Every structure is written in C-alpha cells, then in structure tokens.
Amino acid sequence: MSAYLNDSFLENDEAMLHVSDLSMQRGYAVFDFFRTINGIPLFITDHLDRFYASAIGLHLIVRKKNGELATIIHELIKRSSLSEAGIRIMLTGGYSSDNYHPAEPNLLITCNPVKTATGADFERGYSIITHEYQRELPHIKNINYIMAVWLQPLMKEKQADDILYFRNGIITEFPRSNVFIITKDKKLVTPAHNILAGVTRKNVLAMAAEKMDVEKRDITTEELMNAAEVFLTSTTKRILPIVKIDNKIIGNGKPGKITTVLYQTFLELEDSFVESVSR
Amino acid sequence: MSAYLNDSFLENDEAMLHVSDLSMQRGYAVFDFFRTINGIPLFITDHLDRFYASAIGLHLIVRKKNGELATIIHELIKRSSLSEAGIRIMLTGGYSSDNYHPAEPNLLITCNPVKTATGADFERGYSIITHEYQRELPHIKNINYIMAVWLQPLMKEKQADDILYFRNGIITEFPRSNVFIITKDKKLVTPAHNILAGVTRKNVLAMAAEKMDVEKRDITTEELMNAAEVFLTSTTKRILPIVKIDNKIIGNGKPGKITTVLYQTFLELEDSFVESVSR
C-alpha cells in the first residue's frame, strides 16, 4: 500500500484518476512534494502549510484538516515500508461534468522511492542555461511545468543540468528549485518576487541569517553572472553549486567556500530535524 | 464502449490514467476536440492535422497514422451510439519514471454527449470582460488552462460569459474561442499572432473571403471597443455575437447584421459538410 485516494489506502498501481478529472482536462491541480529520512517526513509542517495555501490559491477546498492529513501521511509511510521516500500530495479540480468548471476535488497521495543529489553531485556542480520565462501563478505550486518539460531537448543540446528563468532582466527561479547568489562582499541574496517560496529556501535563509547578511530582493542577470558563488536549493537537491551559466564559469568553476559551509550546515539541520522527531 | 486507450476500446468509466502520467505530474499533454452531427465528425481532417501538429510541437510521437486514427474514431462513434457527440483525443507525456521526463505517450480518446450554443444563445449574445494574459505555447493545443479556470470566480463576479485575453494592448483570443471584429468599413479582421488557430476560425475566414474583405493582423483593445460588430468562434459555439465588453455596449447591443449572415452561412456549411460525407 503506497497510495491514498480521497478516503482509502491503495496499492500504487491503483492510484489512477478518470480522464474527466480537471488535472487532465485543464491542467488544474496543486501539489506538494517532500522526502522522508528513516521514515520521518522532512519539514512536513512547512510542506502541508504550503499545500493548503496552494489549494486556497486555486480556489480548491482540502476536505481534511492539517492534522488528519499528517496522520494519513504517517500511516502511508508506515504501510509503504520505505525509509527514504518521496511523498507527493496532489489536489485536483475534480471530476468536472463539463470538463471546465471545478467539481469536488480529488486528493491523491503517493509514496515512492526517491533519489537525492549526492556528495559527488555537489563536488561536480551544475552547468546551467538561462531562459526568459515567467511561471504562471508562481506562488501556487500547481502542476503546470509545460515549459520546463518542453525545454528538455534544448537543455540536452546545450548539455545543461538545469535552466534558470528570468524575465525583463530579473532572475526568478529554476523549474523545480530556487536560486541564491553570494555577492563579492559576501552577502547571501535570493529573489523575492514572482517565485515559488521553497521550503529548502526558507530553511537556508533562516540558518544563513545566523552567520551572514541575507537579502531577499530582485537580482539582475548581470549581477548573477558576476556573483562570487551561485547555488540552487530544492527538496531533492538540498544545496547544489552552480559552476557555469550560459558557458561562463562562475567563481573558479568549483563549489564556493560559503556554499560548502551552508551545505554542511544544511546536512546537520536535516540530521537534527530527524533526531528531534525520533526522540 | 465510448473510450479508446492506446490500443483498446473501453467503457467510459475505464478511461483512467495512472497518476505517474506526465499530464498529472507536469500538465504535459496535447489534445483536440470536435463534434459529430448524425454520427459524422465535423471537419475531422482539420482537427486531426492540428492534433498531429500539436504533438510535434510538444516533441511527442503519435504512434498511429492519420488514417488509422480516423478509423478508430469512426468505430468509436459507432460503438458509442451517440449521433451528436464531442470527441476528445489526448496524447500525454506518458508514464514517466522520474515524473519529469517524457516516456511513451498515452493516447486516450473519449466520446461523450455534447452541448452546443443554441439560436437563443446567438440572439442574446455574450457579455465579456478582458484580461491581460498570454497563453503559453499558444500554437499548440495543450491542456494548460489554469488561468482560464482560475479566473472563473472573477467572471462570475462580473457576470461575464467569457474572458478575452490581450497582451500589451493587442487582443489575442478567448480561452477556448477565437475573436473576430467587423470594422466600421465592413472588413472582417481576426488576430494573426500568439493564438491557437481554430478550425471554426479557419472555416469562417474561408467562407467570409467570398463575400467581404478579410484581414489577419494585430487588433488593439481600442479598435476592438470601437468595432461595428464583434463575435467569437469555437467548435461548440460556432459563431456567437459579443454585445458587451467590460460594460461597454458594442454596436446597438444586439447581434450585428454581418455576424448574423456569417452565422447562417456557417450553419449551411455544416449541413453541406454532413451531406457531402453522408452521400
């Protein structure tokens, strides 16, 4: 049993929706995604808070209270027997009678094996390209990634690991990750507007604020290209250095010192989170 | 039997996909939609051509040739026993192993009862509002209608029947319909860029070109508001007059003369299409 639909636990291969669901008719659904370590869901409170906020953003009602949802997720993790898993929780526009207007939402939770970035990935760093684009309804974690998937052939052609969006000269985010720069005077800066507020981003900002100056504000593509260090954050990648952007080497082309310290601190934060919950 | 999935005819309630399909993971799918009259699919060649073009646009491969697909659709119509039906044909990014990269596409065709606009709808006309927005990948008929569905509460509040998108002062299209104006000097004009090329639009342009001057070009919101007549076209609405835009009455607030002539000519075109195929 590694899935849950509306009110029932299911086998993973039973996690199906009818084509009349508004996710398939009109791309209308929100979701959230988080990991478990030793069966403990990381930063689940932040993720559930964002899930409810996304649902409200799309005018969808989650019929279950926050606590009920957390209980279901813990039960699902237990039933799945996976100690390291990726949990995806989705709320759709439901089985629409006219294929256009939202109906009673479908709630679908899945629990599957997950791959996270490794220490070797960190050492290698990412080579990325930039692309002018603004996600629609960026504050809402919705299922529209059509541009990200559509751009995959271009990424392959450019041998890029990921793609950073910008609009009118201001960088925003990656399709599934947030971006940070470290300026030459050692400030940590991340975009403030027109982005999805990542949970890893939030944790990195909080832990960095104890060590250094932190700013949330617009960053131009020019400032990005001249940054001392650049990295991305996400649930599965934690902190990953960006060492090349549109063929320009960032810093000395290796993970920066401050990025490395933040990465190690983040790994410790994960450990202490798991420990505090296990205790 | 009123559905078809990959290689099999199914009952409608079996038309389901697993949540790992890229349509539900990332909103990645194309589709097309057309009607039948007396069991005859209207303008099916145009719709299938556009479906293949949309698939190519999203880098997805339709494993069936055009003729095979037409044969399946005719068989599906027969099995459904519906004489007036809406056929939806969808091709998704498939069951993705990492929930991000496209896999073997899923092809899903459904055949359901359909409602079309009536003569009374035509007489009443539509009251609409405008909204600044540009559809992503507009030439590709993809499932991303998140903005259209998200705007439904606003439409209700404004008591609007539909919403016309514009960008930088240039009008483009409705979420599911194309827009036309008739200028004071009796030219028929419709937007040329950043739109989905509707099949009804194509037919209206061709039949109007025999009677009047026709232009495909940019239309400003100002020109729209001062047009002699405005109407929309779509598969289910055929031709529908726009009588009010953002609370400004268009013309005398009733269906215009030229719009009415085009509507009658379009009804005749439908009849003659059905007749020519039935013969």
Which descriptors would you attach to this protein?
homodimer, 279 residues, alpha+beta, nine-stranded mixed beta sheet, six-stranded antiparallel beta sheet, 9 helices, globular
Explain this structure:
The structure is a homodimer of 279-residue chains. Chain A is an alpha+beta fold and 279 residues long. Chain A has helices spanning 22-26, 44-57, 66-80, 119-124, 146-150, 152-157, 199-208, 221-225, 257-278, and strands at residues 3-5, 8-10, 16-18, 29-37, 40-41, 85-92, 107-113, 126-132, 162-167, 170-171, 178-182, 188-190, 214-216, 229-234, 238-245, 248-249. Chain A is globular, with a radius of gyration of 19 Å. The relative contact order of chain A is 0.14.
Entry summary:
By secondary structure, chain A is α+β, with helices and mostly antiparallel strands. Helix content of chain A is 32%, strand content 28%.
Question: What about the largest sheet of chain A?
Answer: 9 strands, mixed
Largest interface: A-B, 45 and 45 residues
Strand content of chain A: 25-35%
The total count of strands of chain A amounts to 16
Low-confidence stretches of chain A: none
| SSE string of chain A, helices as H and strands as E | EEEHEEHHEEHEHHEEEEHEHEEEH
Distance between the termini of chain A: 27 Å
What is the share of helical residues of chain A? 25-40%
Average pLDDT of chain A works out at 97
Helix-strand blueprint:
The structure is a homodimer of 279-residue chains.
Chain A: E1 3-5, E2 8-10, E3 16-18, H1 22-26, E4 29-37, E5 40-41, H2 44-57, H3 66-80, E6 85-92, E7 107-113, H4 119-124, E8 126-132, H5 146-150, H6 152-157, E9 162-167, E10 170-171, E11 178-182, E12 188-190, H7 199-208, E13 214-216, H8 221-225, E14 229-234, E15 238-245, E16 248-249, H9 257-278
